[in-house]
């Protein structure tokens, strides 16, 4: 029988997780079954476990926000899918060895794609891509400023911006990250204590960024807002610092900066199926070509999901924690 990591109650880490056998069933009309290969452990997963995320599942529940599998069964009325094709799943519940889902929630991927990298494709690269395209029209040579530049989204922004001809001003907290991020394409990397209100123009070669991406909040969010050119957007997609964003009146009155928010799940709810597929098609092509690459910190078997969660909660990692969903499969 398939195995799944089930969340039994919301609690601070160490979490109330259990590896349980779950029923296996054939796909109904409009559904497919995936034999899962790998899944990632994201900050959102930790927030769900703790009960602090924006939307919480009913309990008990199989958790996990992204993962990669192989299409193993296809139900009636499903077209355009082939058994053996790798795919990602656009719904929660990926920490399992088998998923039965609506075909509408499945995105086929190129054959031969790296399943470990594909398991990290759904959330962070898509968040980076949509924020770079949905809030302002950037042109080649334009600057993006972001904090938490070493995060999964931050690294995707750096790599995608490089491929698209945009330039990035990146803010990090640890000096050892500067060379590393420059090595993946970052144009400028500075520490949090650099005052971007006075330094951004110099750092950006006489220009000002036309998009700010905030994953921290508090004074860090204000610092990158002060770097923005007048009339351009500041987009918040995370709150790692757990501090509210305090907006000075002058940024609204004199610079006409717009403050927006982004949540990938909301985007998917409102986007057309074509837009969703186009987004992931482009991103999968970037992944296959090597433009996108996410470092892996450590891989755990599904049976050690609790240890994986504890590892993912540690500060100072430079890569993602992944779950191996193959090694523990039972028959």
What tags apply to this protein structure?
single chain, 331 residues, alpha/beta, Quinone Oxidoreductase, Chain A, domain 1, Rossmann fold, 2 domains, 7-stranded mixed beta sheet, 30% helix, globular
Total individual domains: 2
Shape: globular
* CATH homology-level superfamily of the largest domain: Medium-chain alcohol dehydrogenases, catalytic domain
**Which consecutive residue ranges, at least 5 long each, have pLDDT under 50?**
none
Strand percentage lies at 25-35%
| Helix and strand pattern | EEEHEEEEEHHEHEHEHEHEHEHHEHE
Biggest β-sheet strands, sense, barrel: 7 strands, mixed
Rg on CA atoms, Å: 20 Å
Predict the CATH topology of the largest domain.
Quinone Oxidoreductase, Chain A, domain 1
Helix segment tally: 11
Residue-averaged pLDDT: 95
Could you give the count of β-strands?
16
Helical fraction: 25-40%
């Amino acid at each position: 029988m398939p195995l799944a990591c089930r969340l039994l109650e919301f609690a601070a880490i160490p979490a109330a997780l259990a590896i349980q056998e779950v029923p296996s069933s054939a796909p109904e009309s409009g559904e497919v079954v995936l034999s899962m290969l790998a899944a990632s452990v994201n900050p959102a997963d930790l927030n769900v476990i703790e009960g602090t995320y924006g939307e919480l599942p009913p309990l008990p529940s199989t958790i996990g926000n992204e993962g990669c599998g192989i299409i193993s069964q296809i139900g009636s009325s499903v077209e355009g899918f082939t058994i053996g094709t790798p795919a990602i799943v656009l719904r929660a519940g990926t920490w399992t060895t088998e998923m039965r889902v609506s075909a509408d929630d499945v995105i086929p991927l190129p054959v031969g794609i790296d399943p470990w990298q594909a398991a990290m494709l759904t959330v962070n690269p898509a968040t980076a891509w949509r924020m770079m395209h949905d809030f302002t029209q950037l042109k080649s040579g334009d600057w993006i400023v972001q904090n938490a530049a070493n995060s999964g989204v931050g690294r995707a922004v750096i790599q995608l911006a490089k491929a698209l001809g945009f330039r990035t001003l990146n803010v990090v907290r640890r000096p050892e990250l500067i060379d590393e991020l420059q090595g993946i394409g970052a144009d400028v990397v500075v520490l949090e204590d650099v005052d971007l209100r006075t330094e951004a123009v110099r750092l950006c070669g006489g220009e000002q960024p036309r998009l700010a991406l905030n994953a921290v909040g508090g004074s860090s969010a204000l610092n990158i807002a002060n770097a923005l050119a007048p009339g351009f957007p500041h987009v918040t997609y995370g709150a790692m610092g757990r501090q509210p964003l305090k907006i000075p009146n002058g940024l609204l009155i004199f610079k006409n900066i717009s403050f927006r928010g982004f949540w990938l799940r909301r985007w998917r709810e409102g986007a057309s199926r074509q837009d969703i597929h186009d987004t992931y098609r482009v991103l999968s092509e970037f992944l296959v070509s090597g433009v996108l690459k996410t470092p892996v910190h450590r891989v755990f078997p599904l049976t050690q999901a609790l240890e994986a969660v504890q590892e993912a909660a540690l500060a100072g990692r430079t890569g993602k924690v992944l779950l191996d969903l193959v090694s523990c499969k039972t028959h």
